[in-house]
Automatic annotation (TrEMBL):
SUPFAM superfamilies: FMN-binding split barrel. It comes from the Bacteria. It comes from Streptomyces fildesensis. InterPro entries: F420H2_bilvrd_red/Heme_oxyg (IPR052019), Pyridox_Oxase_N (IPR011576), Split_barrel_FMN-bd (IPR012349). The lineage of its organism: Bacteria, Bacillati, Actinomycetota, Actinomycetes, Kitasatosporales. Pfam families: PNPOx_N. This is Pyridoxamine 5'-phosphate oxidase family protein. Keywords: Oxidoreductase. Residues 27-111 form the Pyridoxamine 5'-phosphate oxidase N-terminal domain.
Amino acid sequence: MTTWKEFTEGAPRIAGIFTRRHAATGNLCLLATLRSDGFPRISPIEPRVFEDQLWIVGMPDTTKFRDLGRDPRFCLHTATVDAEVKDGDAKLWGVVEDVQDKALHQRFATELFEDTGLDLRGRDFDHFYAADVTGASAVEVGGGHMDVTIWKPGTPERVVRKH
């Protein structure tokens, strides 16, 4: 599994854009999953980095988590609010693993409360998905061109410039 630290070390340019855009939108991203009929589903999500791992956690009993339970593949896209993409955007894709570690859940809930005031301490999490990032890309536009940065684990980032 690719940890968040491994991702940021292997793909610093993409990680920087993802982190910047994630923070700029109040941690909002769009999560793509596969529905039971095979069609894609796009859902809002607020992924969090905790203990060196990217976590996809949220409201219990939602269709997006049923999708991930059936098929662990996902794509996570930073929420783009600018049609000219002046601030860039990033996509991560991979697979999730449901981690049922109650002590981890409570450490996460404590940090979430300290950071946001949302109090989930003492509650059970139905699903607690660790994201294994198996690829990523980012787009930056400026100076009359667009740079697309691409990364896969074990390879350096590669930039494709489009004019």
